[in-house]
Amino acid sequence: MTKEALAALSARCADAYGVPVEAMISDSDQHEPVRVVEARQAVCYLAARYFGASQKELAVFFHRHRSTISHAITVSERRLRADRETRRAVLQAGQVGRNLDALIDEARAELAAARTVVKRLESLVAHLERNRDGLSRYTA
């Protein structure tokens, strides 16, 4: 999962839980409000289960130990089974993340196509420069 997609998913979960995304990513050792912890746990669950993010990736992104990420995923799974409102909020946030991943993939494909066009144009320019003398009689 790209860092950009993970940031977008974090923003969506932060919004759903009513917390600032900066608080979720902070590496502060201070006591955090429960909603911040729950929002971060939701992101970890969604990123790992639906987007294939590794626990190491999530640990680096959230400035946490890998075991903390593992715990977050487990706690989120339990909470999702027990609480309908949490399940709705988390899955809604995850849907936006999947849509974002699709947009990112589409943008990458467009970028690849644009790079191909640029290479073709560069090749054409190089060809024209190499044959400049032979072509100048047609433009004069």
Rg from Cα: 24 Å
Number of helices: 7
**What structural class do you assign from the helix and strand content?**
mainly alpha
Q: Please, how many domains? A: 1
Strand content: under 5%
- CATH homologous superfamily classification: DnaA protein, C-terminal DNA-binding domain
Q: Write down the secondary-structure element order.
A: HHHHHHH
Q: What's the CATH topology name?
A: Chromosomal Replication Initiator Protein Dnaa, Chain: A
Mean pLDDT: 83
CATH class: Mainly Alpha
N-to-C CA distance: 56 Å
Bulk shape: elongated
Q: Main β-sheet: number of strands, strand sense, barrel status?
A: none
Characterise the protein shown here.
This protein has 7 helices and no strands. It is mainly α and 140 residues long. The protein has one domain (3-108): Chromosomal Replication Initiator Protein Dnaa, Chain: A, CATH 1.10.1750. The longest helix has 47 residues, at 84-130. The chain is elongated, with a radius of gyration of 24 Å.
